[in-house]
Amino acid sequence: MSTLEKPISLDKLSGLNGIDQLRSFSSNNLGRGAVDTNNTAKDGKYKFFKDVPRFAMIIEVGPRDGLQNEKTIIPTAVMIEFIRKLASSGLSVIEATSFVSPKWIPQLADAVDVMNAVKDLTGIRLPVLTPNLKAFNAAISAGVKEVAIFASASESFSKSNINCSIEESLARFRAVTSAAKKISVPVRYISPTNVAYVAKELHEMGCFEISLGDTIGVATPGTVLPMLEAIMAVVPIEKLAVHFHDTYGQSLSNILLSLQMGISTVDTSVSGVGGCPYAKGASGNVATEDVVFMLHGLGLKTNVDMGKLLSAGEYINSYLGRPAGSKISVALAGSCYSKI
Length: 340
Description:
Number of strands: 9
Strand order of the largest sheet: 2-1-9-8-7-6-5-4-3
Low-confidence stretches: 1-44
Shape: globular
Helix content: 25-40%
Order of helices and strands: HHEHHEEHEHEHHEHEHEHEHHH
Oligomer: single chain
Number of helices: 14
Largest sheet: 9 strands, parallel
Strand content: 5-15%
């Protein structure tokens, strides 16, 4: 049995530095189908992980994007404790809530109370969604220090999601970004994955980060590559993040490709909670635990404690009354290992 074929036990997986492990294999193992340990094939064409960053920023979207679609209203106290548990895991950016009309998203009607309760968290960024100037002003009044805005990929989805056309949404965003600039509040933009011109417009408006969102989870590496190339032509790569839903199980491969292209910020949701109330069939966001496990396996730093992250996922799942949604949680539940 060659080195590449030897099984690796679950308790050792978390300690592997993927890039270093690949490089440590003997060149004798470079037979058919084997990975070149120096990240280059014999003809010099292929370079694996050449542009993968050494640190990846995780944007935890569970409290807002993850829970907004839940039919059972989550008590404010549970939401607050959920955010605190996520913060204790080492996550430094947590999308906390949304300042939208309760008519559209009743789950997040307690935005003011939630933000008042978590504003004592130090060293944690807590962006909130503010789709228009009214929402922005309400968020600022509640002490919010960072906001996000969201556009849609099609006219029909835009009208059902934020109740206006794409062009109308851009006009609203100009008002938000203009007001934010006056008081030095950072604005993050969550973009549809296939509209480069919208990303360019928002970048020029002053958004410090453009998160490219595959809301219904149909993207594959074959579609992500040209999408990123198109947007990287009009927006600097250091301003880009990715946001994948896992409807067809493609999120990790899409994230790996994005990392290889130089992107270092990834939106995730603990235990894969989430979905989109306006996109039929869309399952949850990619699970934070699974992404962190992959990143750590590649040797990337995240500053996230997996044990505490799993605990946060268990906490919200126990309230929702559902099993864990991450592959890591399921694997651990069926094994004798309790530590990653």
